[in-house]
Design a protein that fits this description.
The complex is a heterodimer of chains A (254) and B (309). Chain A is mostly helical and 254 residues long. Chain A contains 14 helices and no strands. Chain A has one domain (2-252). Classes of the chains: A mainly alpha (254), B alpha/beta (309). The structure holds adenosine-5'-triphosphate and magnesium ion. Adenosine-5'-triphosphate (ATP) binds next to strand 2 and helix 1 of chain B.
Chain lengths: 254, 309
């Protein structure tokens, strides 16, 4: 618990401020991406489509884009930003000469990137709701779901950051992990009429679970499937939680 | 001060894979003293400092810092310790003053306490007018000075300085020396590495000379000069060829002679007598120079003159 407290200290007060003063350079640009999809696909493409599973196309895709916003929010932070801090700025070396440990650093980064995904996800939902995409009162739980999603992608992204030697390797992370997930996680088309094996594979895709969770909370109100997806995310995040710490330890302790 | 001995190392070893960078060294650092590590590039000074500052786990031997086992009790040790690393690791993305305040935050020092302290330390290192600058706008020497200020934010009992004055101009170097002396008077223990022999002679109560992962000698600067080199040295710069035979004939009179590309050095206990003999040779008088033995002579005679790596 002391560890969690100092990790929080690492990112609170002025520690947090370090990142907050950089919000305009840092957070704002990535903010627009899900909106572009919402407008282009939801309104643009949606105008040519019949209803999908009984709802407007924009209603169908909006929850998935909330999950995407959460994923992007966390991922940008724990990939490029953390790598620059660690490799070029040697910031972690400086922090390690204070009472904080590598575990505190890893935890602090995950908490901050989760915070960032929370900002992305909830602001996106608030704006998207003006298009009338919220259909269930369970949507009030969306921030919790967004935080869970953010934490999961923080753990995954930070683990990748801890092992890559060069910043160029993020191309692999993005083109082979993030983008395919974005396209094939049931955000833009339902997977339940696909062959069985597709659905089996999809069950293992982290973003797909997050999309199911958001859609249950925001669109269908199917709290049973929300609980199942949330449980999946909690278990996976719990299992992955120590991985980035161990990998950072291996990289930074010499 | 609680402990009379602040750092104790016994058989301290550090391996990087197959390579042994520190090969079982023994030393101890007394409280309220300045203890120096000298040695050529790659001797293992930084590696040793990083083990003491609990940034790097020892791979063998024992290391006690402030009465606690290093690395194991790293968190508690680091709370009471300040570190100036050899490599700059300031936060380039925030201002000068925020670098200090954020760093203090990691020691649980609230901005209310750290802000005035940071201002004070900035004026001490003569950076008060750079308060709101970004790091990239500072010169190399200013960054070093800011690192010294940063290391003092938690009011440490033990201060570890890895080449703190490298890249500083003479004014700034004297400024830092003055501050280090005043910290020592206040009871702070100092651990210092440096390549400046004058700095070591002026600041260190005791020092070791390291070479290839081992400690060669230990003592006060005065003891080392007395024990490992002659009291006086005569240097003859670029002697003409026809004087060389005469100089060579003087070799038996000196304790030790060194012939370098540009000069001859005679180490001796009786400089005046030898100087008279040198002056009798056909030499330009301004090329002959008598001086006292120095730490640099000890260093060079122990670690050799060639580039090691
Ligand atoms: N992380 C590392 N991995 C492998 N070898 C290392 C590592 N760090 C240091 N070394 C090696 O250990 C030896 C001692 O290095 P160290 O940095 O302690 O030297 P130093 O005495 O501080 O030298 P300098 O005066 O150049 O700062 C060197 O041969 C160096 O190459
Ligand atoms: Mg060094």
């Amino acid at each position: 618990m002391a560890r969690v407290a100092t990790a929080a200290a690492h990112r609170t007060g002025r520690g947090f401020l370090r990142d907050i003063v950089r919000v305009p350079d840092n957070i704002v640009p990535n903010f627009f991406e899900p909106f572009l999809y919402l407008l282009a696909m939801g309104l643009g493409l949606g105008a040519y489509l019949a209803r999908i599973k009984g709802v407007r196309y924009i209603d169908f895709i909006a929850p998935g884009l909330v999950a995407t916003a959460a994923m992007f929010g966390a991922s940008f932070e724990v990939t490029f930003n953390c790598f620059v801090k660690m490799q070029f700025g040697k910031i972690y070396d400086a922090v390690m000469s204070t009472p904080l440990t590598i575990e505190d650093i890893g935890l602090g980064e995950m908490l901050w990137s989760t915070t960032r995904s929370l900002i992305y996800g909830t602001v996106f939902l608030a704006i998207a709701s003006s298009f009338g995409v919220v259909h269930s009162w369970w949507a009030v739980l969306t921030p919790v779901a967004v935080a869970l999603t953010g934490m999961m992608f923080s753990a995954i992204g930070l683990s990748f950051t801890a092992v890559i030697p060069l910043i160029d390797y993020y191309t692999y992370y993005w083109t082979m992990f993030i983008t395919p997930m974005f396209l094939f996680s049931g955000i833009f088309f339902p997977l339940d009429r696909m062959p069985n094996w597709v659905q089996v594979v999809a069950w293992f895709i982290p973003l797909h679970q997050a999309v199911d969770l958001m859609r249950a909370l925001i669109l269908t109100g199917d709290i049973g499937s929300a609980a199942a997806a949330a449980a999946w995310i909690v278990v996976v995040t719990g299992a992955l939680f120590v991985v980035p710490m161990n990998l950072l330890h291996r990289r930074l302790v010499k | 001060m609680s402990d009379p001995v602040v750092v104790v190392a016994r058989g301290l070893t550090k391996r990087f894979g197959q390579f042994e960078a520190v090969k079982g060294i023994d030393f101890h650092v007394d409280a309220e003293q300045c203890f120096g590590f000298l040695g050529p590039n790659g001797a293992g000074k930084t590696t040793t400092m990083r083990m003491i500052s609990c940034s790097s786990p020892p791979t063998g031997g024992e290391l006690t810092v402030l009465g606690m086992p290093a690395w194991v009790d790293g968190r508690r040790i680091k709370r009471r310790m300040g570190v100036v690393p050899q490599e700059n690791n300031l936060d380039e993305e925030v201002s000068v003053i925020d670098n200090l305040i954020i760093y203090a935050r990691y020691f649980d020092i609230s901005p209310k306490v750290s802000t005035p302290r940071a201002e004070e330390l900035l004026s001490f290192v003569a950076l008060e007018d750079k308060r709101d600058w970004r790091i990239y706008a500072l010169s190399g020497g200013m960054k070093r000075r800011l690192l010294v200020a940063r290391s003092l934010m938690n009011e440490p009992e033990l201060l570890i300085l890895d080449e703190p004055t490298t890249g500083l101009d003479p004014q700034a170097r004297h400024l830092v020396w003055e501050k280090l002396r005043s910290l020592k008077r206040q009871g702070v223990t100092l651990l210092l590495t440096t390549h400046y022999m004058e700095e070591a002679s002026q600041l260190c109560d005791r020092l070791v000379i390291m070479h290839e992962g081992r400690i060669l000698v230990e003592g006060s600067p005065r003891e080392l000069v007395a024990g490992h080199t002659s009291p006086q040295v005569i240097e003859v710069f670029e002697p003409p060829l026809d004087a060389e035979a005469g100089l060579a004939a003087l070799e038996p009179v000196a304790d030790r002679t060194e012939r370098l590309a540009d000069r001859w050095l005679f180490y001796t206990g009786d400089g005046d007598a030898l100087l008279a003999k040198v002056r009798a040779l056909p030499l330009d008088p301004s090329s002959v120079w008598l001086r006292g033995g120095m730490l640099e002579d000890v260093f060079l005679s122990l670690t050799g003159r060639g580039l090691l790596e």
